Write a sequence for this structure.
């Protein structure tokens, strides 16, 4: 298979794979639904003459559709953020939570559960503290005269550890019979409580974040060459890097606020996408978006279908992600050399 044919096959795969998993996901659940019923139900708003069961309509549109869309959105946001971070930091071990956004959002959610317990409060607190954690990381890195990429990364490690300690403090003082189990379950990651309202609340941050990253993916190729080369081509590396970090933060905070902490997606999906389409960010970012959405939706289907009790997706992404990462590590990465 020549290079051009391989590229065409890869593009077709990345377009149709999410569509196939999207449709198949409606068939998975405690209440069995046939493919014909799913198709008729999905088309019923366009073709009112189609006869559909009210029960199936409720299951498809109010229960399964929001969850499926949520899985696609969360997977896409984490994967494309991880790909962007790996590119601008030129490090294959970087993921979407590099600058402390996940632990910051986790603390916000834990605080929201402790103070209120209402889903909307938990989601808002998680999103806000995700933004606060990255803002703190960036401001701390800029406070040092020799501030650079390394200082930014180290600041992210420190802020992440700080918010992790605050999460532990919240868990320590939480009611062990009421609040603590809810906090622990949220931190393990789940899409079980996804609703249309939650998706609408993150719609604007997700759209803004995606526009930023997709619009700047050409600039990421220049940043990968080094700051001096980028400046010689008329690019302001610090400004572009800040915009990319802002876009990644919006996406990751929005994703974590509705799903909890889901690891490994932002680490392994960019590597898998790089093996399919190569290191060029013009194709790598859209490929990561597609593959990340498909992968997390597949994981979520497994979590609710393997056993009677739903498995938190954070557990499954780690169990499945570690062997995949080790396999990718064994193959090596000539493109990073």
């Amino acid at each position: 298979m020549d290079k051009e044919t391989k590229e065409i096959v890869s593009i077709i795969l990345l377009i149709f794979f999410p569509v196939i998993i999207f449709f198949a996901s409606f068939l998975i659940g405690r209440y069995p639904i046939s493919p014909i019923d799913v198709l008729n139900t999905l088309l019923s708003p366009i073709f009112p003459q189609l006869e559909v069961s009210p029960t199936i309509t409720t299951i498809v549109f109010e229960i399964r559709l929001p969850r499926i869309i949520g899985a696609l959105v969360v997977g896409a946001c984490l994967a494309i953020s991880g790909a962007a971070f790996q590119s601008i930091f030129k490090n294959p071990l970087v993921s979407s939570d590099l600058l402390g956004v996940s632990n910051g959002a986790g603390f916000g959610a834990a605080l929201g559960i402790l103070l209120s317990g209402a889903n909307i409060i938990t989601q808002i607190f998680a999103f806000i503290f995700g933004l606060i954690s990255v803002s703190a990381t960036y401001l701390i890195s800029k406070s040092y005269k020799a501030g650079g990429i390394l200082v930014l990364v180290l600041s992210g490690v420190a802020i992440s550890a700080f918010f992790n300690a605050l999460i532990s403090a919240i868990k320590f003082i939480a009611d062990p019979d009421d609040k603590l189990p809810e906090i622990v379950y949220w931190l393990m990651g789940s899409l079980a409580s996804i609703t249309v309202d939650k998706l609408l609340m993150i719609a604007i941050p997700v759209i803004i974040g995606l526009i930023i990253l997709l619009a700047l993916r050409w600039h990421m190729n220049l940043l990968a060459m080094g700051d001096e080369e980028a400046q010689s081509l008329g690019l302001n590396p610090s400004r572009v890097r800040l915009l990319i970090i802002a876009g990644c933060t919006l996406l990751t905070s929005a994703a974590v606020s509705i799903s909890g902490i889901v690891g490994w997606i932002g680490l392994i999906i960019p590597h898998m996408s790089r093996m399919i389409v190569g290191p060029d960010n013009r194709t790598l970012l859209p490929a990561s978006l597609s593959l990340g959405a498909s992968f997390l939706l597949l994981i979520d289907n497994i979590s609710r279908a393997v056993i009677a009790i739903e498995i938190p997706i954070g557990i499954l992404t780690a169990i499945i992600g570690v062997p995949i990462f080790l396999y990718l590590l064994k193959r090596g990465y000539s493109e990073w050399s």
About this structure: The chain has a mean pLDDT of 90. The chain has one domain: 3-33+60-336.
